[in-house]
Design goal:
Blueprint lengths: L4 E7 L6 H13 L5 E7 L7 H5 L4 E4 L8 H13 L3 E4 L2 H13 L3 E7 L7 H13 L2 E4 L2 H7 L4 E2 L19 E5 L8 H13 L5 E5 L5 H11 L7 E5 L4 H5 L4 E4 L11 H8 L3 E5 L15 E3 L4 H11 L3 H18 L2 H17 L2
Parallel strand pairs: 1-2, 1-4, 2-3, 4-5, 5-6, 6-7, 8-9, 8-11, 9-10, 11-12, 12-13
Helix pairs in contact: 3-4, 4-5, 7-11
């Protein structure tokens, strides 16, 4: 085992998503370890986690926005040679594509960490992803479901949550509902909004929050303002937020609706709901069974079933004993299965083991 290990992370961006939050947590933890030097190369500039990660790594490079997709193929070689990593750990298929050749030429161990879903890649993208996964020295997935979907074995490193970010809160009398997810084809905001409107109409919840941004957000904003304007002062589109902890503290129920077509790996949003003491309700797709035991630490619903969301919340709204039991079980799940300390220890063991292999 080497005394010092240089880890170079490659990511397509450092925006507000769950993947980027996990990368930030890992880098923060490794920064506290004396025998690790970390660096990062990313292909977008001045994003949500850029300054935070920059302050926690030894080497930081944001490549300028590419006029063509070929530019990083050339510029990335320079920075890999400068940092001299023992291991390159990619976080998405684009990064694996740009990094594979220099990793092989410079005989650097190559970890492909792009398996963070259980169905997003389709058609040629699916086969391109498998091409690089097959050639990695090691695959790290954030769920068993992801490895099964892509047909590979590897290490499962679950998303980690720093539970200290979410102190136990005394909530007010309001019953509020939230979904934290970007407005993309991968998420099912239609089902969430249908449930939210029904719950508002029946007086079951007081307010509905949607946190996140994306190409389809304005469509939903226009829908509420035009067709359901009677509820527009109780449905809040928060956009991209940096204070997710504060917004979760105002809510009782956290919902994540995902599509069956694109599935889900392990949702960071659901883990944050559970850590923050919300009742978590998630679509039963992908790896969510690896997080939620239905009725014990949260609830799983069929894809597109807004009625089930309404039924669960209506039943639990005034049942504080059941709510308390579920939220206690949820926080215990986070502490035991998704802790930062446990994950970082496993990751360091993976890195050390890989460095000893010839």
């Amino acid at each position: 085992m080497k005394d010092n290990i240089n880890i170079l992370f490659i990511s397509d961006g450092l925006s507000t998503g769950g993947k980027e939050r996990q990368l930030a947590e890992i880098i923060k933890s490794l920064n506290k370890k004396e025998n690790y030097r970390t660096g990062i190369i990313t292909f977008n500039r001045e994003q949500h986690f850029s300054e935070y990660i920059k302050s926690n790594v030894h080497y930081f490079k944001e490549l300028k926005k590419r006029p063509t997709r070929l530019e990083p193929f050339f510029s990335i070689w320079i920075h890999i040679r400068r940092f001299k990593p023992d291991i390159i750990h990619t976080w998405d298929s684009l990064s694996s594509m740009y990094t594979y050749l220099p990793a092989r030429i410079f005989t650097i161990k190559f970890i492909d960490g792009s398996v963070r879903d259980a169905g997003i890649e389709k058609g040629w993208q699916f086969f391109l992803k498998r091409f690089f996964l097959k050639r990695a020295d090691l695959i790290i997935s954030n769920s068993e479901a992801g490895l099964t979907h892509y047909g590979f074995s590897g290490e499962v490193l679950y998303n980690a949550i720093d539970i200290k970010r979410f102190p136990i809160q005394t909530r007010g009398k309001e019953i509020n509902l939230i979904m934290v997810a970007n407005f993309t084809v991968y998420k099912d905001h239609s089902t969430f909004i249908r449930a939210g409107l029904a719950l508002l109409k029946d007086g079951i919840v007081d307010n509905v929050y949607l946190a996140g941004d994306g190409p389809h957000k304005q469509n939903y904003v226009d829908l509420i303002n035009s067709t359901y304007s009677i509820y527009s002062d109780r449905i809040f589109f928060l956009g991209s937020i940096s204070n997710v902890e504060e917004n979760l503290a105002k809510c009782t129920f956290g919902v994540l609706c995902s599509t069956l077509e694109y599935a889900e790996g392990i949702s960071n949003s659901v883990l944050e709901y559970m850590a923050a003491g919300l009742i978590a309700i998630s679509t039963d797709v992908g790896g969510m069974k690896e997080v939620i035991e239905d009725g014990v630490n949260g609830f799983l619903i069929p894809p597109g079933d807004s009625d089930m969301i309404v039924k669960i919340i209506t039943k639990l709204r005034l049942d504080r004993n059941t709510c308390n039991t579920i939220t206690e079980n949820a926080r215990r799940t986070i502490s035991e299965k998704f802790s930062c300390e446990g994950n970082i220890n496993k990751l360091m063991s993976i890195y050390s083991g890989l460095c000893t292999k010839k």
